[in-house]
Write a structure and sequence with these properties.
Blueprint (H helix, E strand, L loop, with lengths): L4 H10 L2 H6 L5 E3 L16 H21 L14 E3 L1 H11 L6 E6 L10 H19 L15 H7 L3 E6 L2 H13 L2 E7 L4 H9 L3 E5 L3 H13 L4 E4 L5 H8 L1 H11 L10 E6 L4 H14 L3 E8 L4 H8 L28 H10 L2 E5 L1 H15 L5 H4 L4 H6 L3 H4 L8 E6 L7 H15 L1
Parallel strand pairs: 3-11, 4-5, 4-7, 5-6, 8-9, 8-11, 9-10
Antiparallel strand pairs: 1-10, 2-3
Helix pairs in contact: 4-15, 5-7, 5-10, 7-8, 10-12, 11-12, 12-14, 15-19
Length: 443
C-alpha cells in the first residue's frame, strides 16, 4: 500500500526527529521500545537454534579447512580478531573533540577469511545448511560423518544439479558466490547498480553468474527471488526474510564472548558492553544483537548505524511500520557510497526482533565514512571499506547523550566494540583512493 502525504505529515508530527531524517540530517535516535531481555517474550529464533547453528559450523570445519586452506590453521573455523584500537580512540577524541572513556575494540570482520566481510557469517552458513540438508535427504552423509567429503568430486557433481540465487549490493553476493561455487552449485547473483564493479568482476572470476539491474537493492532482490523460485531445483537466499542468514550471524556472539574472556574484559550490570553495527537491510546487525543479548542480557547495548541517504531501518522502527515503508516513500534517494548499506526497505524477519532489542540508531553523511576510514588507518594501520568504518563514530555520538548516565552506568567501566563489516577484498588502488579522500577531508 502506498504511503500518503497525510501519513508522512502525521508521522512527522508524532516523531519530530523524522523531519531531520527526511532532510538528510545526521541524527541519534534512542529506541523507545527497547525492552529488558526477560520481558521480550519468544522470538522466531531461539538460543537453542543458535547453539545448533554453531554445531553446524563445527561439523563443516573439516570441509572448510580443505576447501579454503587459509582456514586450515584455525581448524576450518571462520573467525576474525577482536583488536583494541587505542590509537584510533585517541585520534577520534582529537578529531571530533570527544572524550571516550573505557576501551575501544574493533571486531575485524573485514579480515574474515575467504570472503573478507561479515556476510561470510550469514551467507556461508545458509548455503552450508542447505547443502547439508540436500546431502542428508539424498543419503550421501549423516551428521556423524567426516564433512571433508563435501570437498570431493562426488559431492561437487551432486550439487551441480542444483542452483542458488541471491540479491545483493555486494558483500552478501560475494559470500554466497564463493561458498556456492566451491561446493559445486550453479550460482546467480542479482546485483543493484550501486554495487562496486570489482565485486562483480570477482564474482564472475569465482564462477558466479552476475545479473545487473539499474535500480536499487529492492529491485535486484525482487527479480532474483522471482527468477530463482521459477526453478524447482533452485534455492533463493532471501536477505529480507531469512532465518538461516540471521542464525549464521548470531553465532558471532559465542566467539565474541570467548575473545572478551581471553582478554579479561568483564561484561555485567556494572561493566556495560556497547556495540556499534553498520546496518543495511538489518539482518547481520540484528542477528549479532540477538546473539549478544542471549549471552549478556541487558549488560550489552547495541546501536545500528545507517547513511543519511539510506535510513531504512531507522524509519521502519521509528514509525513502527518496519518493512511496510521504504525510504523512497519519504523522498529519500537511497544513494550512498556506503556499499552494502544502500537499502531502501528493512528486513521483515529482523525488524520485529530488533525493535525490542536495539538501544538506538545513528546516521552519518557519506563524507564521514571516508574520514573515519582514514582515522582508523592512521590510528591503528587497519584499512576497511567506508561502510565498515561507520561504526567508529558510535562512541563519539554516544558520548553526546546521557544514555549511560540515565541507566546508572559508568562510562569509565564501558567496553566499546565497533564492528568492522568488510574491506579485505577491496583492490589496493581503490583503498588508496578512499584513504586519500578521507585524509583530505580531515585536514
Amino acid at each position: 500500500m502506498a504511503v500518503t502525504q497525510q501519513q508522512i505529515e502525521e508521522w512527522q508530527q508524532k516523531f519530530p526527529l523524522l523531519s531531520e531524517v527526511t532532510h538528510f540530517k545526521p541524527v541519534f535516535w534512542l529506541n523507545p521500545k527497547l525492552q529488558n531481555v526477560a520481558d521480550t517474550g519468544e522470538f522466531a529464533v531461539t538460543k537453542q537454534e543458535m547453539q545448533e547453528a554453531e554445531e553446524l559450523w563445527q561439523r563443516f570445519a573439516p570441509f572448510l579447512a580443505v576447501a579454503f586452506p587459509e582456514t586450515a590453521e584455525a581448524g576450518g573455523i571462520i573467525e576474525s580478531p577482536l583488536t583494541e584500537i587505542a590509537g584510533t580512540q585517541k585520534l577520534l577524541e582529537e578529531k571530533y573533540g570527544a572524550e571516550i572513556p573505557g576501551k575501544l575494540f574493533l571486531k575485524c570482520d573485514n579480515a574474515l577469511p575467504v570472503a573478507g566481510s561479515i556476510k561470510a557469517r550469514g551467507g556461508f552458513y545458509e548455503v552450508l545448511h542447505y547443502a547439508e540438508q540436500l546431502a542428508i535427504e539424498n543419503g550421501m552423509i549423516t551428521p556423524e560423518d567426516d564433512y571433508s567429503q563435501f570437498a570431493s568430486d562426488k559431492f561437487r557433481e551432486f550439487f551441480s544439479r542444483y542452483s542458488i540465487g541471491v540479491g545483493s549490493t555486494g558483500n552478501l553476493g560475494l559470500s554466497i558466490g564463493i561458498i556456492s561455487s566451491k561446493l559445486g552449485f550453479s550460482v546467480s547473483v542479482y546485483m543493484s547498480a550501486d554495487a562496486k564493479a570489482w565485486k562483480k568482476e570477482l564474482l564472475r572470476a569465482k564462477g558466479a553468474i552476475v545479473h545487473e539491474f539499474e535500480g536499487d537493492f529492492g529491485e535486484a532482490i525482487l527479480e532474483g527471488r522471482q527468477q530463482t523460485k521459477e526453478d524447482p531445483m533452485a534455492y533463493f537466499v532471501d536477505d529480507e526474510s531469512s532465518k538461516h542468514l540471521y542464525l549464521g550471524y548470531s553465532t558471532a556472539a559465542f566467539r565474541v564472548k570467548q575473545q572478551l574472556d581471553e582478554m579479561n574484559i568483564t561484561v555485567d550490570d556494572e561493566h556495560p558492553l556497547i556495540v556499534y553495527l553498520p546496518c543495511g537491510v538489518g539482518g547481520s546487525p540484528g542477528g549479532i544483537t540477538f546473539g549478544l543479548k542471549q549471552i549478556y542480557g541487558d549488560a550489552v547495548h547495541c546501536f545500528f548505524v545507517e547513511p543519511t541517504h539510506s535510513p531504512s531501518v531507522l524509519i521502519g522502527l521509528m514509525t513502527g511500520e518496519k518493512e511496510r515503508v521504504c525510504v523512497q516513500d519519504f523522498g529519500i534517494d537511497n544513494m550512498t557510497e556506503g556499499d552494502g548499506l544502500a537499502v531502501g526497505r528493512p528486513s521483515s524477519f529482523a525488524s520485529g526482533i530488533s525493535e525490542k532489542l536495539i538501544s538506538g540508531i545513528y546516521t552519518l553523511e557519506d563524507e564521514e565514512l571516508f574520514r573515519l576510514l582514514a582515522v582508523l588507518a592512521d590510528g591503528d594501520g587497519i584499512y576497511v571499506e567506508p561502510s565498515a568504518a561507520s561504526s567508529l563514530l558510535g562512541p563519539v555520538e554516544l558520548a553526546k547523550t546521557d544514555y549511560l548516565a540515565a541507566r546508572g552506568l559508568s562510562a569509565e567501566n564501558a567496553a566499546h566494540i565497533a564492528w568492522s563489516t568488510g574491506g579485505d577484498l577491496v583492490p589496493e588502488n581503490d583503498m588508496r583512493e578512499m584513504y586519500r579522500r578521507g585524509k583530505s577531508s580531515l585536514e
